[in-house]
């Protein structure tokens, strides 16, 4: 229930009419209605009044007193509020309940407690007790408003009210004597015949008597009134009969609530109930609920409940912004990107969420505050930790890619040294991983990146090993190609000569070229950091391939047409030319048959020479079979297909027979031709 209409009757202090009407905070608000229900809008009302974020920098004051003793009038004058004032002409009762308004130009919550005095109206005293509990649990200063003529009337209504206040206070703060409240008595329609000092003494004696008469729990028997209350007294002249004086005194009284330098400034720190402003609404509502349910008001428990509720709320608000920030980087990380400066961002989000939380929550119950802070940190870490782990994974991938790229680029360079290139790329890769990983790791976390680095190292090693194997293979292939080129001509020459030492010569070429190739391999392999085993295997491969290349060359040179050509040439050289290389002209007396047979037999012997690699020098045979070709190669295909013994056979026996018969036919043709030439010469 809000009433925003300006109250022309006594609601505005002198001289500030216009200003006050414009102050948004001046709306009064009924926090407890006549049905004893608590408002649901106090929090938003406090925000509206600008008090919500004042921390502890606010004060609470409540007024108590009999009906129609000018309480609302007093508050409106002193605090610039606009509480309802009874219409003089109709003398209607104002609504029962508790109203609140913000004091003008001050951080003060002013509570107008209507109808506190049930006795006077012959009603039950339930509301009196409840509102006293409620007011004492939240207010620093309790104004006790009474007419001068009520003073000293110990049996009067006021004294009943005071008894309730003292009783209730004992049950609330009995054990915590550090909670003090100021009871400020405002004596209305003060005439002046009895000095204020006398009135104060009477009231003090009365209230002391009430205190003494209270039945106190055993452990509080010795408790003194002054342990819990400060008493103060002020007298106000008649509002209508001494209007000017009344206004003057009201202005003086206002100073005691506004001016911190005033010697009678009422809001001492010890009166403050230490409820942060942003928790006041929740706190008051809870207090009222407890009071309504007639439960014992355990203030420490209430404060802890308040702290739990508010710390949760504050954490939720603080987390909302944090989650928003973190969400923004989640996607790119899931997509496999390395987020530049992720650690810096995370540090910033984390410190921001904590400072947002600390700013508001640190005012609450210490244990609850730090417990909830631990919870908050756990939530924060549970959001950040996947980002960190994702970043590490992406970093791992990115570093590996860069490593491969740099390694291959480095190897493309002239005279590049494999080992140097790989070491440089590897070092760079690790440095960039570690740098970025350290950046992303939050110092106060138990996060680790070392495991991921270990994985990266393993992959780098397997990549570089694979690359080394590829490069070695390429090198062996290159050497093999060169080998083929180098043996080609010399082997051809030696196979053409077909001397008795032909195979020794061919194997000599093989040996010499292979030696050079092996030396070349070893000199290059040094830069690859190959292990001895790898070298042994590569060399074995190289030797076998070299042998196979030699065999291929031999096969090429002993293919049917080539070999038949060689045989023909050999035969011709012996049959058609004499020892001096001069072409023969056959005469009838010449021994054609003898020459033919000799040349033919000599040539047929060659087939046997070509048919098998059979060096004259047995050392050669041993060297190739036992030494060079027994080591195992990595190349499994080579391994399976290779059979040194059978590779020594160049021409099978059938092939030998076939070639022999084909050669004989060729030779026979030459014989016939030679015979014919003598016949024709005779004929001439
Ligand atoms: P409340 O019920 O205690 O809040 O009293 P109100 O402020 O509504 O005032 C009740 C009546 O007392 C109104 O008619 C006021 O005009 C009148 N009144 C206010 N202040 C004074 C005062 O100082 N002296 C006298 N005699 N009457 C006052
Ligand atoms: Mg009133």
Automatic annotation (TrEMBL):
Transmembrane as a keyword?
yes
Task: Name a single GO cellular component.
Answer: endoplasmic reticulum membrane
Q: Its Gene Ontology biological processes?
A: endoplasmic reticulum membrane fusion
UniProt entry keywords in alphabetical sequence: Endoplasmic reticulum, GTP-binding, Hydrolase, Membrane, Nucleotide-binding, Transmembrane, Transmembrane helix
Protein origin, superkingdom: Eukaryota
Domain GB1/RHD3-type G per the UniProt entry, residue ranges: 55-271
Positions bound to GTP: 65-72
Principal place of residence: endoplasmic reticulum
Q: Where is the composition biased (Polar residues)?
A: 6-19
Q: Write down the membrane topology.
A: Multi-pass membrane protein
Q: Which InterPro entries does the UniProt entry name for this protein?
A: G_GB1_RHD3_dom (IPR030386), P-loop_NTPase (IPR027417), RHD3/Sey1 (IPR008803), Sey1/RHD3-like_3HB (IPR046758)
Region feature Disordered, mapped onto this chain: 1-19
SUPFAM superfamilies referenced in this protein's UniProt entry, alphabetically: P-loop containing nucleoside triphosphate hydrolases
* Record carries keyword Nucleotide-binding: yes
Q: Which residues lie on this side of the membrane: Cytoplasmic?
A: 1-684
Q: Name one GO molecular function term.
A: GTPase activity
Where found, per UniProt?
A: Endoplasmic reticulum membrane
Family statement: Belongs to the TRAFAC class dynamin-like GTPase superfamily. GB1/RHD3 GTPase family. RHD3 subfamily.
Q: Which PANTHER family match?
A: PROTEIN SEY1
| Name of this chain's protein | Root hair defective 3 GTP-binding protein
């Amino acid at each position: 229930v809000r009433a925003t209409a300006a109250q022309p009757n006594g609601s505005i202090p002198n001289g500030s009419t216009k200003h006050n009407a414009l102050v948004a905070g001046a709306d009064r608000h009924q926090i407890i209605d006549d049905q004893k229900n608590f408002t649901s809008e106090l929090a938003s009302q406090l925000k509206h009044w600008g008090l919500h974020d004042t921390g502890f920098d606010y004060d609470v004051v409540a007024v108590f007193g009999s009906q129609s003793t000018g309480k609302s009038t007093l508050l409106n004058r002193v605090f610039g509020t606009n509480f309802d004032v009874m219409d003089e002409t109709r003398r209607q009762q104002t609504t029962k309940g508790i109203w609140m308004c913000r004091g003008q130009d001050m951080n003060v919550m002013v509570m107008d407690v209507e109808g506190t005095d049930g006795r006077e109206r012959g009603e039950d005293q339930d509301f009196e007790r409840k509102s006293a509990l409620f007011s004492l649990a939240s207010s620093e200063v309790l104004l006790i408003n009474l007419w001068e003529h009520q003073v000293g009337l110990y049996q009067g209504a006021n004294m009943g009210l005071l008894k309730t206040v003292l009783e209730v206070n004992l049950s609330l703060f009995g054990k915590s004597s550090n909670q003090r409240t100021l009871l400020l008595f405002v004596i209305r329609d003060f005439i002046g015949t009895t000095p204020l000092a006398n009135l104060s003494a009477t009231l003090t004696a009365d209230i002391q008597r009430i205190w003494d008469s209270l039945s106190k729990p055993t452990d509080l028997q010795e408790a003194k009134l002054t342990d819990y209350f400060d008493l103060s007294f002020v007298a106000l002249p008649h509002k209508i009969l001494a209007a000017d004086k009344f206004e003057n005194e009201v202005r003086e009284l206002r100073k005691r609530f506004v001016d911190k330098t005033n010697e009678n400034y009422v809001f001492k720190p010890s009166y403050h109930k230490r409820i942060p402003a942003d928790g006041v609404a929740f706190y008051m509502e809870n207090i009222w609920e407890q009071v309504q349910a007639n439960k014992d008001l355990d203030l420490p428990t209430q404060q802890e409940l308040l702290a739990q509720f508010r710390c949760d709320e504050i954490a939720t608000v603080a987390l909302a912004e944090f989650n928003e920030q973190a969400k923004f980087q989640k996607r790119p990380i899931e997509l496999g990107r390395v987020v530049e400066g992720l650690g810096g961002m995370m540090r910033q989000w984390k410190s921001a969420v904590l400072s947002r939380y600390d700013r508001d929550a640190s005012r609450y119950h210490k244990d609850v505050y730090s417990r909830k802070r631990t919870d908050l940190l756990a939530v924060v870490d549970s959001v950040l930790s996947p980002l960190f782990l994702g970043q590490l994974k992406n970093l791992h991938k990115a570093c590996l890619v860069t490593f491969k790229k740099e390694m291959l680029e480095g190897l493309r360079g002239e005279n590049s040294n494999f080992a140097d290139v790989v070491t440089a790329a590897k070092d760079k890769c690790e440095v960039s991983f570690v740098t970025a990983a350290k950046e992303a790791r939050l110092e106060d976390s138990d996060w680790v990146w070392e495991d991921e680095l270990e994985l990266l190292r393993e992959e780098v090693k397997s990549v570089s090993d694979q690359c080394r194997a590829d490069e070695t293979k390429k090198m062996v292939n290159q050497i093999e190609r060169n080998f083929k080129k180098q043996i080609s001509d010399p082997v051809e020459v030696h196979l053409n000569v077909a001397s008795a030492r032909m195979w020794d010569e061919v194997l000599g070429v093989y040996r010499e070229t292979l030696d050079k190739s092996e030396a070349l391999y070893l000199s290059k392999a040094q830069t690859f950091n190959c292990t001895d085993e790898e070298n042994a295997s590569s060399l074995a491969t190289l030797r076998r391939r070299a042998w196979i290349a030699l065999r291929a060359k031999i096969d090429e040179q002993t293919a049917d047409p080539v070999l038949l050509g060689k045989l023909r040439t050999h035969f011709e050289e012996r049959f058609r030319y004499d020892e001096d290389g001069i072409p023969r002209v056959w005469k009838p007396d010449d021994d054609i048959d003898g020459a033919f047979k000799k040349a033919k037999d000599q040539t047929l012997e060659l087939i046997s020479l070509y048919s098998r690699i059979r060096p004259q020098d047995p050392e050669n045979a041993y060297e190739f079979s036992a030494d060079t070709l027994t080591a195992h190669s990595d190349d499994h295909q080579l391994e399976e297909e290779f059979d040194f013994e059978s590779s020594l056979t160049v021409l099978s026996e059938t092939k030998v027979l076939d070639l022999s018969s084909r050669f004989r036919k060729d030779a026979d043709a030459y014989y016939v031709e030679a015979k014919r030439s003598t016949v024709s010469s005779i004929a001439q």
